[in-house]
Fold these 3 entries.
Entry 1:
Amino acid sequence: MDRLHLLLVGVDGLRLDLATRARAPHLHALLARGAETRMTMPVPTISGPGWATLLTGASHEEHGVVDNRFVGSRLASFPDLLSRAVFADPSRTTFAAAAWPPLVDPAGVGPIIHTRDEQRRAERHRVVVRDGETYGYRTTDAEIADFAVAGLHAAGPDVSFVYFSGADEAAHVYGAVSRPYVEAVGRIDVHLGRLLAVVDRRAREGEPWLVAVTTDHGHLDGGGHGGGEPEVVASFVARAAWNTALDEWPAEMPPTELTPRLLAALARG
């Protein structure tokens, strides 16, 4: 049997209480297949600090990211999930796709996912970047989904991170308790369903897979985040496995534990 493949899907600004079964059937199918762990995100509940913590396991104080400008960042000293997976096993391949450039763009601020230029040139670390801030996340999320489906189907990378931000964009403009937010959640769930279909196909050939979905923060009902309100700090990890057993995780954990626990699953897989 092949070694474990990991897909981590990041959905920016997702409120799980508003992503109901009717609105997000693929996410709830994942939850029904697997397990859920709750997390409380530290303040400031902003994408830069949040994703830096989730993807490295370092605290705000350690990685030094305090906003979305990344001034004073110490990310060079805190490798991300994908990089650490490769450091543990250099034969692994990785894939990262996002329309928020600071996550993955080698030419931008950050990036949180280390560039690993040698491996990119050797096509062992593939990076797909779009600019959702300029062109809108409804369009760029769809492009990211297309590239991710193709990349997972063709290559089945050992460790992947795929990110969507349309829900966060909608909440900022219209509020979280709004039809546009619900519709954005539904579009992202369709993207998730396409990714899960690829995982299903590859798993039917015997590959073991672990899929996890998480978010960096929630939103106020009227939109906005950054503070410590319960609906804003609430995060979660939904995870499910194919052709392997899920590790036992607690019902609640700090966000600094996400990357170490995923790495531990890879090591045992």
Entry 2:
Amino acid sequence: MTFTVEIIAKQTIKPSSPTPDNFRTLKLSLLDQFVPAVHVPLVLFYSSNADTEENENRLDHLKKSLSEILTYYYPLAGRIDGNDSISCNDEGIDFFKARANGHLNELLVGNWLT
């Protein structure tokens, strides 16, 4: 069985409150400047066995929580500026809603067995 994923929606989640002016630029350490840039995606899987309204409530709660936590981890909502700093400009992060044509356990077990 081929496991396919369909992206249903894409949204940018921004911090719930703006970054203070004195934290707008985060200088990177010398070590950070020499480490190659790494993209670390995070994927969360949730069962859709619940009714549609419960799924939408769960999704809204996730978005709200993410927006609130980005206030404390403000560099994550910014962009790398050159090689020596992060511009903490509250641009936000991408949030995708997707649907898969199978079950997560089929994907995980299937990959371990092949």
Entry 3:
Amino acid sequence: MRKFLTYLIALVWLVNGLFCKVLHLVPRHEQIVARILGDQYARPLTLAIGILETGMALWIISGIKSRFNAILQMMIVAIMNIIEFILAPDLLLWGRFNSLYACIFILLIYYTAFKLSTRVSRS
């Protein structure tokens, strides 16, 4: 189960990073960056964010420092969603309800990294 959830979490980062941002298949992501950080550098910043998110997916799959990785993921998702909730709710797929899905994703990351891994190590 832990392996499946780990790959699922990595897939979320990969899809949002590579497909939505780097390959620009979902222009709404660039619009959000433009709203928050300005139009002038929206594309290069969106590209950089997408590359970092793709790197996050690879890091997750690697399993290197997985608990530190999980903490970083939870912080990034929380901060990103708070900023978007305040500054760009009209551009979010589910509006302000996006924060609900972000909380569920954070709980999934926590459960996978801290609860499932302790169960595995105890057996």
